[in-house]
Amino acid sequence: MGDNDDGLGLSLGCAQNQPSLKLNLMPLASPRMQNLQPRNTWNELFSSYDRHLDTRSFHRGIDVNRALTTVDCGEEGGVSSPNSTISSISGKRNERENVGYETEADRPSCSQASDDENGTAGDSSRKKLRLSKEQSLLLEETFKEHSTLNPKQKLALAKELNLRPRQVEVWFQNRRARFSRFSGWGLVIKCDEHDCNSRELVLAKKTAKRFSGTKLKQTEVDCDYLKKCCENLTADNRRLQKEVQDLRALKLSPQLYMHMNPPTTLTMCPSCERVAVSSLSLTPTSAVAALSVPNPTSAIWNQQQPLPVSPWAAMQISDRPFNPASASRS
DNA sequence: TACATGTAATTTATTACATCA
DNA sequence: TATGATGTAATAAATTACATG
C-alpha cells in the first residue's frame, strides 16, 4: 500500500495484487493511529489487553449505541466458548483459542439488551446497531492498517470500541466486501505505470476516492467513467480518420515523403493497448526529451500526436525513385 | 407514508489446517 | 511415513433485514 491515506483511493493500485492478508504479526503503531483519538497504539493496546484483561476500562468516551460492559455481557475478556474445544495445541488454532476466541452462536446479542428488556427476547426479528462516528472512524483506521484481524486484534479492538468481537468481525467482513466491490477500479489503474491514461484515470481515481467517503453510487461513477471513455474514443476515432484522410492524400503525392518522418517502431502498452511511438519517429529533440523524462505521463503517452500506425505498412510505396526536386516544387 | 439507500447481520460455500485411524 | 476421513475455524460472496433520510 502506498502512503496515501485515502482509504479506497490508495487501494486502487494495489487491490488486485494484494488480496486480503492474514496478518499474524502484532501491528506496529503508526503515526496515523497515534493521531486518532485518545487511543493506544496497537502494541499498547494488546499488551494492555493481555495484562489487564479483566480490569481495563473500556469506555473511552466512545459513543456506543448501547453502552455495554463486560459485566453486562458476561462474555468478553476471553471467556472460553463452549465451542472452543482444545483439539489442537499448535499452529493457528492454538493461537485462536488462546485468546478466547468465540463463535457467534454462543453469544446472544448484548447490544440488543434493551429489546430483551422490552420483552422481545427470543424474537426472531433482528435489530441493527448503528456504529457511532468514533467507532466507524477507528474501524476504518484499523482497516487501513490491515484488512484482516487476528483473534487478539479482534478482541482488543472490540474492547476498544466496546463492541462484541463478532461485531468487529462482521464489520471487517462487510468492509472487505465493499473494498473488493470497489476494487474494480483496479482495472483503470493498471495503466498507472506509464499513465496511459490521463484525464479519465485521474478522474477515476478522484471519483473512487470521493466514492470511498461519500454515498455516491458506484453505478453513477461507472457511468461517468464510461462517458469519459466514450468521449475520448470518439475523439481518437475522429483524429485517426483525419489522419487516414491525410495519408490518403499523401499517397497521391508521394513527393511529400521527404517531409515525413521515417517509418516508426510501435510499442503497445500491454495493459491499455495504446500505441506509443518510438524515438525513431521523433525528432532528435523530442526523442531526447521523451527518453529523459522520468515520468512518461508528460511525455509521449500523453501526446495527441497522430499515430503513424498502419499507413506505412499498408501503403503502397511508389516505385518511382524519389525526386527531391519535384517534391520541393509541390 | 413509501421509497431508496447504506449497512449490520446472517447464510452458505469454500478453503486451510490439525488430528486420527 | 504416507494417506484419506473428519472436525474446526476463517473467509468470501450472496443475501436478508433494519435504520435512516
TrEMBL record:
<dbReference type="InterPro" id="IPR009057">
    <property type="entry name" value="Homeodomain-like_sf"/>
</dbReference>
<feature type="domain" description="Homeobox">
    <location>
        <begin position="122"/>
        <end position="182"/>
    </location>
</feature>
<dbReference type="Pfam" id="PF00046">
    <property type="entry name" value="Homeodomain"/>
</dbReference>
<dbReference type="InterPro" id="IPR050762">
    <property type="entry name" value="HD-ZIP_Homeobox_LZ_Class_II"/>
</dbReference>
<dbReference type="InterPro" id="IPR003106">
    <property type="entry name" value="Leu_zip_homeo"/>
</dbReference>
<dbReference type="GO" id="GO:0043565">
    <property type="term" value="F:sequence-specific DNA binding"/>
</dbReference>
<protein>
    <submittedName>
        <fullName>Homeobox-leucine zipper protein HAT3</fullName>
    </submittedName>
</protein>
<dbReference type="InterPro" id="IPR006712">
    <property type="entry name" value="HD-ZIP_N"/>
</dbReference>
<keyword id="KW-0539">Nucleus</keyword>
<dbReference type="Pfam" id="PF04618">
    <property type="entry name" value="HD-ZIP_N"/>
</dbReference>
<feature type="compositionally biased region" description="Low complexity">
    <location>
        <begin position="80"/>
        <end position="90"/>
    </location>
</feature>
<feature type="DNA-binding region" description="Homeobox">
    <location>
        <begin position="124"/>
        <end position="183"/>
    </location>
</feature>
<dbReference type="Pfam" id="PF02183">
    <property type="entry name" value="HALZ"/>
</dbReference>
<keyword id="KW-0804">Transcription</keyword>
<keyword id="KW-0805">Transcription regulation</keyword>
<comment type="similarity">
    <text>Belongs to the HD-ZIP homeobox family. Class II subfamily.</text>
</comment>
<feature type="region of interest" description="Disordered">
    <location>
        <begin position="74"/>
        <end position="128"/>
    </location>
</feature>
<dbReference type="GO" id="GO:0005634">
    <property type="term" value="C:nucleus"/>
</dbReference>
<keyword id="KW-0238">DNA-binding</keyword>
<dbReference type="InterPro" id="IPR001356">
    <property type="entry name" value="HD"/>
</dbReference>
<feature type="compositionally biased region" description="Basic and acidic residues">
    <location>
        <begin position="92"/>
        <end position="107"/>
    </location>
</feature>
<keyword id="KW-0371">Homeobox</keyword>
<dbReference type="GO" id="GO:0006355">
    <property type="term" value="P:regulation of DNA-templated transcription"/>
</dbReference>
